[in-house]
Write a structure and sequence with these properties.
The protein has 342 residues and is of the alpha+beta class. It has two domains: 140 residues, no CATH class; 136 residues, Dna Ligase, domain 1 (2-Layer Sandwich), CATH 3.30.1490.100. It has ten helices and eight strands. The protein has a four-stranded mixed beta sheet. Strands 5-8-6-7 form a four-stranded antiparallel beta sheet. The N and C termini lie far apart (62 Å).
């Protein structure tokens, strides 16, 4: 008999628990209570023989707690589909709408419901060849997972992003090119930090600006992609490309509400493109400079070391976001932790 792994999902974190013995439901409840005691954050735990079933179990655990009567009370907060008898499992699947399945979006969900497939149990009973022919191999993989056959591997590290973007809506309308250049420089710099953190280089830079579609002003929206001489993670080179694109698409007389920078055509930083006129050691020196910049900004706060075109910060920035109603950052800023009075 082939041994399949078991997966545990705590909110959005998957854990392989196939080597753990004992009462997994009781262990999960104690784990949930420990997280609550230590952090004050309530969580729900779902256990299943596949990632899709673990995700579904997590949904059941949340719904049973928030909507009493939707599922049996014993599934509240912690739901272990792997420990259920076949009849009980079918009852739970029959009580769950097909749109709640991980990987079934609104469009496919609507198509399934039109064919009379309204519950998760209905979906598990479909013929796999029919699913592949009528919809896709992706949905077939989802059905196999719901039937208990693992098809989605556990990722020990998140995959590298194919695009990295930094976009913001302005706190006030911006018309001046100089202010837009400050904003775009800041956005490109932050995207470059993310790019280096991922260990990638970008071959092209996309810049966009647009006015607000909700204001009765003249409307304008434009984007442009600027190819770079060589793939790079150098903030200066990325900012130069972003500003070149901005100056090309900028039009005076418009009240811009949003701008952004996206780094595309990403490649691994280990792969370097050389040229006949490439100066020996130049790339290594710029890499050390970027590493030092990132280290200073991490230690002393974002914006400690910036590109000159981002502005000095002495004047108020009209393009900065308004954050008067931002939720306090209790878990990351000690100064924002509420203090009670005795």
């Amino acid at each position: 008999m082939q041994h399949w792994p078991w997966y545990l999902l705590i909110d959005e974190s998957f854990v392989d628990i196939s080597g753990i013995r004992g009462d997994l439901t009781d262990r999960s409840r104690r784990l949930r209570q420990r997280v609550l005691d230590w952090t004050g954050l309530p969580t729900c735990v779902g256990i299943g023989p596949t990632k899709t079933l673990a995700k579904l179990a997590n949904h059941i655990a949340k719904t049973a707690e928030r909507k009493p009567g939707s599922y049996p009370a014993e599934f509240s907060q912690v739901c272990n589909l792997a420990a259920m008898e076949r009849e009980a499992l079918q009852q739970v699947l029959a009580a769950t709408e097909v749109r709640e399945v991980w990987g079934v979006g609104p469009r496919i969900g609507q198509q399934l419901e039109a064919e009379g497939i309204k519950t998760v149990l209905d979906l598990t009973q479909l013929d796999l060849a029919t699913v592949r022919r009528r919809w896709s191999v992706v949905l077939e993989r989802t059905v196999r997972e719901l039937q208990g056959t693992p098809c989605v591997d556990l990722e020990e590290a998140p995959p590298a992003k194919k695009e990295i973007a930094c976009t913001r809506s302005f706190g006030r309308a911006v018309m001046d090119l100089g202010e837009l250049e400050e904003a775009v420089t800041t956005f490109a710099s932050r995207a470059a930090e993310k790019l280096r953190r991922q260990g990638s280089h970008a071959g092209q830079v996309l810049t966009f600006v647009r006015t607000s579609p909700f204001r009765p002003d003249k409307q304008y929206s434009r984007s442009i992609i600027v190819p770079l001489l060589r793939p790079t993670a150098d903030t200066a080179a990325l900012v130069e490309g972003a500003l070149m694109g901005l100056r090309t698409i900028y039009r005076s007389g418009y009240k811009f509400a949003k701008a952004g920078v996206m780094l595309v055509d990403l490649s691994d930083a280990c792969v370097e493109q050389g040229e006949l006129d490439f100066e020996e050691g130049h790339g290594e020196g710029r890499c050390r400079l970027m590493t030092a910049m990132d280290a200073l900004n991490r230690r002393y706060g974002r914006g400690t070391v910036i590109i000159g075109s981002a502005g000095t910060g002495e004047m108020p920035r009209n393009w900065a976001m308004r954050q008067e109603r931002r939720t306090p950052r209790y878990t990351t800023r000690i100064g924002e932790i509420p203090v009670g009075k005795a």
